[in-house]
Design goal:
Layout lengths: L6 H15 L3 H26 L3 H18 L9 H19 L19 H4 L4 H12 L3 H12 L4 H8 L3 H28 L1
Length: 197
């Protein structure tokens, strides 16, 4: 996901909007197919990380593209099209999870690590610890998993993640800090359980 829109995509969007303004839906849909073809895999990957059921993830991905098409006149070119449609997909996935009454763990309910975690806490190289970390991430609520995925695995800047998640970058930085502490606490607890066996 590049956070700036290319001249080619900007021109494509202008052609779509021009076609829509004169009622030429067929032409606008043909132009829009470029975006679906180019970004459908990335958006599906995005929704799949929040929603476990493959069919639901596919449906949410399609819904995001439909909503983006209908909302195209409101697109302000503040980001790339891909980032914008992922923002829509994120909110579609959250709404879906709320409708499904997904259980959300409140971070306040989890006992946090006593000290500030360092990178060494998460990257010791020990296979067992890496596996425990992956299990701990899987236990996070979907929105926290997405935040971890975008920041650490996709290496997206906080500003772009904040746009997608409709959040303040400073608030996300604080949230990342708390998630890291929660992960460390979970990993330490699981290691303690294993050593007592």
């Amino acid at each position: 996901m590049n956070n700036t829109i290319s001249i080619n995509e900007r021109q494509r969007i202008k052609r779509i909007l021009d076609s829509l303004s004169i009622g030429n839906n067929k032409s606008s849909m043909a132009e829009y197919a470029y975006f679906v073809k180019t970004y459908s895999h990335q958006v599906l990957d995005f929704t799949s990380r929040m929603v476990a059921d493959k069919k639901d993830a596919e449906e949410l991905s399609q819904d995001a593209f439909v909503k983006a098409y209908r909302s195209l006149p409101s697109f302000r070119f503040q980001s790339s099209f891909c980032t914008w449609v992922c923002r829509i997909a994120y909110h579609e996935a959250l709404d879906h999870l709320r409708r499904q009454k997904q259980h959300w763990v409140d971070i306040e309910d989890v006992q946090l690590a006593e000290r500030e975690p360092t990178d060494e806490d998460f990257s010791t190289g020990r296979e067992e610890r890496i596996q425990l970390m992956e299990e701990a991430i899987d236990d996070l609520p979907p929105d926290e998993q997405m935040l971890i995925h975008l920041y650490y695995y996709k290496e997206k800047p906080l500003r772009e993640i904040a746009y997608i998640m409709d959040a303040n970058p400073k608030a996300l930085a604080t949230r990342l800090h708390r998630i890291r502490r929660k992960l460390l606490s979970t990993i330490n607890s699981k290691e303690d359980e294993t050593s007592r066996r």
